[in-house]
Design brief:
Helix content: 55-70%
Shape: elongated
Largest sheet: none
Structural class: mainly alpha
Number of strands: 0
Strand content: under 5%
Length: 176
């Protein structure tokens, strides 16, 4: 008696139907969804990423479909980028605008996203996070290092000057 193999016997005259292969545009759309699931992206940034693997026509179709379905929105991406920057890695409005432009967001959308950013408060929060690295410094070294740190993060000179003075005074009051 033959041993059962665990597989059901297939009749000889049954032809297995092949699943239709998804089009390149469908594959680009699915890849776009996966990229957007990881993090929000701008229209141009997503198109550039998809263009590495798919033909231009498939990318255009996929991006248009993602926009039509509400998955891709430059204005929402810009607002989310700003919110994340303010919450986790404070930057000046000019640097956030520059980052957004680098992600392919239009100038108008980037300007609207950074409208109303509080550079003074963001600079203060950035400075607070950097204080441990400057413990025990005299005022000239403290000023030089903190000012350079804040300038690299895109804060304007007047905000940097005010923030350095404010933080130094707070540190002096705490130490006294």
């Amino acid at each position: 008696m033959p041993k059962p193999s665990g597989l059901a016997p297939q009749p000889a005259n049954v032809v297995m139907e092949k699943q239709p292969q998804p089009s390149q545009a469908d594959r680009a759309y699915q890849a776009g969804l996966r990229l957007l699931a990881y993090r929000a992206r701008g229209r141009r940034e997503l198109a550039q990423r998809l263009a590495r693997r798919f033909a231009a026509s498939a990318v255009q179709e996929a991006v248009a479909q993602l926009e039509a379905n509400g998955y891709l929105d430059d204005a929402a991406f810009a607002q989310e980028w700003r919110r994340a920057r303010e919450a986790h890695r404070p930057r000046g409005a000019s640097l956030v605008r520059q980052e957004l432009r680098g992600h392919g967001v239009s100038r108008e959308v980037a300007d609207a996203a950074v409208q109303g950013m509080d550079d003074a408060e963001n600079a203060y929060r950035a400075a607070q996070r950097h204080l441990k690295a400057m413990a025990g410094l005299d005022y000239p070294a403290f000023h030089r290092r903190l000012a350079a740190y804040l300038r690299r993060r895109g804060f304007p000179p007047d905000v940097v000057r005010h923030t350095v003075g404010r933080v130094w005074e707070e540190q002096a009051a705490q130490g006294a």
